[in-house]
User: Fold this.
Amino acid sequence: MLWCAGSVAALAALLTWRERAATFIARSQRLVMVVLPCATVLLGSVLWVLLHVMLLWGQNAPAAVALR
Assistant:
C-alpha cells in the first residue's frame, strides 16, 4: 500500500510541475515528454502491485504462489 500511495503522490507532483510551466507550449511539451510516460509507468506499477496483493489474499492463494 505504501507503493501505491507513493505513486499517487509522485503523479500529483508531476501534474503540479506541469501546470507551473510559463507558457502553453511548455506545458504541452512537459505533458508529452515527461508526464504521460511517467504516469504510464506509475499507474502500471500500481496495477501490478494491486493484482499481486489480490492474488495473495484471494481464495486460491497457495495455488497462485505455487505457480511462480
User: Anything to note?
Assistant: The chain has a mean pLDDT of 87. The chain is about 85% helix and 0% strand. Residues 2-66 form one domain.
